[in-house]
From TrEMBL:
Organism phylogeny: Bacteria, Bacillati, Bacillota, Bacilli, Bacillales
Keywords (A to Z) from UniProt: Plasmid
Protein name (record): AbiJ-NTD3 domain-containing protein
AbiJ-NTD3 domain boundaries: 92-255
Species: Exiguobacterium sp. S3-2
Length: 454
């Protein structure tokens, strides 16, 4: 197929822009054979083409989309080619949705809000580094000022569709454009709300919407996020990593659901910072920990201290193996994007012990082995099943198993995702590393968690 050969050519052109010594690593990241470094030094284009040879259409289309996302402006020609080959599969926000949005924007008289057109687009791209289309000027900033402010012989349609090519920009750049349209630095609250309602009406058809994720001086900052079936409501009380005696918790204010730990508070950790819809990352947890431990100086010292404290809350060898492997395998790869793997999290709380209830258990699962708080309000529970999950005093217990699966159902109905590992799978540290690696590679792809260099 001629178009597929063109795609191979375009991908080769883009990737050959990498340093020869780095090319095997880049190819490996995209699922291509990394080969020998010396081969890359011989001819970078041929090196890439050789690894693309024989790849089927689905692989090339998927690879193209990833490269468009990663390389942005450098992949413009591949983006155009991909649209001619597979118009429905190039962008998550489709061209028809983009066109509908842009057509609506043409009807507005306050498109740039408080800013002028040059200042507005400088919030998205470095116009002073972009070349001009007009030979009389050096930069895009000068070009746009001349033709949109001084003479006004470009119109909005030419600017958005031809000059900035918003219909074929990668999704991240198009989303950034929309986010700047509704930024509080650009427009006041009433205008912001009107634009958000307008944009969300169109974004919804592709499974996205603008949602407030943070604040600037009390004004909401909106980001384009995917509509998910995540857990409704905010994370208010994150109590985790308990060691020793169980903390005793009371409800301080039942109207606001405020709690207080009145006994054994030092045995657990309580994260009270606001958690945005972007989730909770390891780097944020380290920053929080450093605020509680001001004597720690270097970032590495803070990180190691928190890691050891969390590790100390784990009892079973399989849980320890799982926790260690997560950081050993992915800490260096994901850095700031690594979701926090939070151990021993209290989900429910029963103030009474089993003995105080005369042997009855009202809440069979009070703690989760691990919790991850991901973007778009996704909450993921990971359980490492030991024999206590399905037996009583080493005798198989259908009742214990039924309680476990009932608790799982309740979590899933409330929007949590639950993944279980058998403790037996994690008994051998070396063998389990491959299992954990494969699981999280698929996990990060499913939840769209990207490496810092992706």
């Amino acid at each position: 197929m001629a178009k597929l050969n063109q795609i191979v050519e375009e991908i080769s052109n883009i990737l050959s822009g990498e340093k020869a010594y780095n090319l095997p690593i880049v190819c490996g990241r995209y699922g291509l054979d990394d080969g020998e470094e010396s081969e890359a030094f011989s001819s970078k284009r041929l090196y890439v083409q050789k690894r693309l040879k024989g790849k089927n259409q689905l692989f090339l289309l998927d690879l193209s989309k990833r490269i468009i996302d990663d390389y942005g402006e450098s992949a413009k020609s591949l983006s155009k080619l991909m649209y001619s080959v597979n118009p429905k599969g190039v962008f998550e926000i489709s061209e028809i949705t983009r066109k509908n949005i842009i057509d609506e924007l043409y009807k507005r008289t306050d498109l740039w809000g408080r800013a002028d057109v040059v200042s507005f687009f400088k919030r998205i791209w470095d116009l002073d580094a972009m070349p001009s289309r007009d030979g009389r000027f050096d930069t895009a900033a000068q070009d746009i000022w001349q033709h949109m402010i001084n003479n006004y012989d470009y119109d909005e349609q030419f600017l958005l569709e031809e000059y900035f090519e918003l219909l074929i920009k990668n999704d991240q750049e198009f989303m950034n454009f929309l986010e700047q349209l509704v930024h509080p630095m650009i427009r006041d609250q009433s205008s912001q709300e009107a634009y958000i309602n307008l944009l969300n009406e169109h974004l919804h058809s592709d499974g996205f919407y603008l949602y407030p994720t943070s604040q600037l001086s009390g004004y909401p900052i909106y980001k384009v996020i995917r509509i998910q079936n995540g857990v409704r409501g905010e994370v208010k009380n994150l109590i985790f990593a308990a060691v020793g005696a169980k903390p005793e918790i009371i409800i301080n204010d039942s109207l606001n659901n405020d709690i207080a730990i009145v006994k054994h508070k030092d045995n657990c950790l309580v994260y009270e910072n606001p958690i945005s819809s972007d989730g909770l990352y390891w780097a944020e947890l380290v920053d929080w920990w450093s605020g509680m431990n001001p004597t720690l100086t270097s970032y590495k010292e803070k990180e190691v201290s928190l890691y050891k404290r969390l590790l100390s809350s784990l009892d079973s060898p399989p849980e320890i193996t799982f926790f260690k492997a997560y950081f050993q395998l992915f800490r260096g790869q994901y850095h700031q994007n690594l979701p926090a793997l939070i151990p021993q999290v209290y989900l429910h709380y029963d103030p009474y012990t089993k003995r105080q209830r005369n042997g009855e258990i009202y809440l069979p699962r009070q703690r989760m082995d691990f919790l991850l708080l991901l973007p778009n309000r996704e909450r993921v529970v990971i359980e490492i099943d030991g024999k206590q999950h399905y037996s009583e005093e080493n005798v198989a217990s259908p009742q214990r198993y039924a309680e476990m699966v009932s608790a799982d159902r309740d979590l899933k109905l409330h929007g949590y995702d639950v993944y279980r590992f058998g403790g037996y799978e994690l008994m051998n540290e070396d063998k389990s590393a491959e299992l954990i690696k494969n699981f999280f590679n698929s996990f990060f792809k499913k939840y769209d968690i990207k490496t810092t260099n992706a």
